[in-house]
Amino acid sequence: MGKTHNLRRTQPASVVQKEEKSMTKYEILYIIRPNIDEEAKAALVERFDGILTDNGAANLESKDWEKRKLAYEINDFREGIYHIATFEAETTSEALSEFDRLAKINLDILRHMIVKVEA
């Protein structure tokens, strides 16, 4: 029997079109411990906003939501400062995984949640 060959034509590199990077919209809600001073909170938010933008996030909008009572006690706190960040990133971007990794080990962030926003 003869061998079959897969003869696919390939285009030269100069003709290959660049793939458009699809950006997905995400929202991160994180709860900051309530007894943090204002200067430290501003530095924390700036640091985590920087983590997102340094790792490929675009169109970042970051703002404090409000100080709210928690449904249950977390680390001896009964309330927390809710902060919300919305941005766009590629699904393969390091922004999400790096934010998640660092938020888990930061003692000033009580909880965080990353949600993909449906269009």
Molecular structure report:
It is a single chain. The protein is of the alpha+beta class and 119 residues long. It has a single domain (23-116), classed as Ribosomal protein S6/Translation elongation factor EF1B (Alpha-Beta Plaits). It is built from two helices and four strands; from the N terminus they run βαββαβ. The protein has helices at 38-54, 94-105, and strands at 23-32, 58-74, 77-90, 109-116. It has a four-stranded antiparallel β-sheet. The longest helix has 17 residues, at 38-54.
Class inferred from helices and paired strands: alpha+beta
Compressed to H and E, one letter per element, the order equals: EHEEHE
**CATH superfamily annotation:** Ribosomal protein S6/Translation elongation factor EF1B
Percent of residues in helical segments?
10-25%
Radius of gyration from the CA trace?
A: 21 Å
Q: In this structure, how is the largest beta sheet organized?
A: 4 strands, antiparallel
Main attributes of the structure:
single chain; 119 residues; alpha+beta; 2 helices; 24% helix; 41% strand; globular; ribosomal protein
